[in-house]
Design a protein that fits this description.
Residues 347-366 are annotated as: Disordered. By secondary structure, the protein is mainly β. The chain has one helix spanning 2-14, and strands at 18-21, 25-29, 34-41, 45-46, 49-50, 53-63, 66-69, 80-85, 88-93, 102-110, 116-118, 123-128, 135-139, 144-145, 150-155, 163-168, 171-174, 178-181, 190-198, 201-204, 208-210, 212-213, 220-224, 233-238, 246-251, 259-260, 263-266, 275-283, 286-289, 301-310, 327-337, 346-352. 4% of the residues lie in helices and 48% in strands. A hairpin with a 2-residue loop joins strand 6 and strand 7.
Length: 366
């Protein structure tokens, strides 16, 4: 009795239409080769008619209301083979693409009426890949101006989607796919790079230098050299600017510049050089000069004043009428500056005292 039941079980199984896949889900890397296999069964006889398999094929889509043989699908041209032997079939696909991710089904057709069978559900193939080379883009793509809105975007082709990390000057900045500056500042300049990563790998972008341009800040003026008649005096102007500023020197109430460049040297200082001097810094983003005064800024200019004084002869001196008047030189140096937390300019003056005059009768110092 047990043997007869076993015979009926085998007979039923042999006569069953079916497709059995070796795997239900397959993951493969882009560019690699994948193999999908199955076995199929069918009843050898139906109504005294022997079953003959006439066609075996794999498909993922339909065309003209018919299942499209994968070997005839132009999307797989030159990349697919299928081989069947003794009801075992093997599909091989190489050069996998992201677009190959799909459900693959096997079907066989026989000479029996309605004698075709497809294995449902099929095999789900997922083509994955580590992130390709990450790239950084800037929007807007024109030159970056201080105060403007700027967005940096990191992108990478990856499946599954990548997670992103931003770096500035090799220091971690944030974990987003974008970095947005609503009003970018000069201190935001630097080298920016991003890393994209998923469970299959990671890639890093080439660093992008973000160059934030801005007009000159209020210039700072300094004086070098001993200020005396006939000496060499150098005025130096500096200003933070991007791109670098060009400098011009002016004398107060004169329209034409006296000199150009950050340094101006007066090699033979004379009385006519006395006056107020200021410098102007300029780049293609704007211009500013050192004589401007701002509540939040600084104002600086240099006052170089040379006075030549003639002393009057002492009427009590016997030689007063014949002694030439002794020339005395009096020098002033003034700098004016306003610090960021002051509203008015601060003045500082240095005066070199005149040479002491001696009285002929007692040689005492006045």
């Amino acid at each position: 009795m047990l043997g007869f039941c076993w015979f009926l079980f085998l007979l039923k199984k042999i006569q069953t239409w079916g497709v059995e896949y070796a795997s239900k889900r397959i993951c493969a890397f882009e560019g690699s080769t994948v193999e999908i296999s199955c076995t199929y069964t069918y009843p050898p006889w139906i109504s005294y008619k022997k079953t003959v398999v006439q066609r075996e094929f794999w498909f993922t889509k339909w065309k003209d209301n018919k299942r499209l043989d994968l070997r005839e699908d132009p999307d797989y041209a030159g990349r697919v083979t299928s081989h069947c032997s003794e009801q075992n079939c093997l599909l091989r696909i190489w050069g996998l693409k992201r677009s190959d991710s799909a459900e693959f089904k096997f079907r066989f057709e026989t000479n029996q009426p309605d004698g075709g069978f497809s294995g449902n559900p099929g095999v789900f193939l997922t083509v994955t890949d580590p992130p390709e080379t990450s790239s950084v883009s800037v929007s807007p793509s024109a030159e970056v101006l201080e105060g403007s809105s700027v967005t940096l975007t990191c992108s990478s082709d990856a499946n599954p989607a990548a997670n992103y990390t931003w770096f500035k000057d090799n220091r971690t900045l944030l974990s987003e796919d974008k970095v947005h500056f609503s009003s970018i500042r000069s201190e935001h300049s630097g080298n920016y790079s991003c890393k994209s990563e998923n469970k299959h790998g990671q890639s890093s972008s080439t660093p992008l230098f973000l160059d934030v341009q801005y007009p000159p800040r209020i210039p700072s003026v300094s004086v070098f050299g001993k200020i005396s008649k006939g000496s060499s005096v150098t005025l130096t102007c500096s200003s933070d600017a991007n791109p670098a500023a060009n400098f011009s020197w002016y004398k107060k109430d004169e329209d034409s510049p006296k000199a150009s460049g950050p340094n101006w040297t007066i090699s033979d200082f004379r009385t006519e050089h006395s006056g107020f001097y200021y410098c102007e810094a300029e780049n293609r983003r704007g211009r500013l000069n050192s004589k401007l005064k701002s509540r939040w800024g600084r104002c600086e200019f240099v006052d170089l004043l040379v006075l030549q004084l003639n002393t009057s002869p002492d009427i009590n001196s016997p030689s007063a009428e014949t002694e030439a008047a002794e020339e005395q030189l009096e020098l002033h140096y003034s700098s004016i500056h306003l610090s960021e937390n002051q509203e008015e300019c601060l003045y500082s003056n240095i005066r070199r005292n005149p040479k002491p005059r001696q009285r002929p009768e007692d040689n005492s110092v006045e």
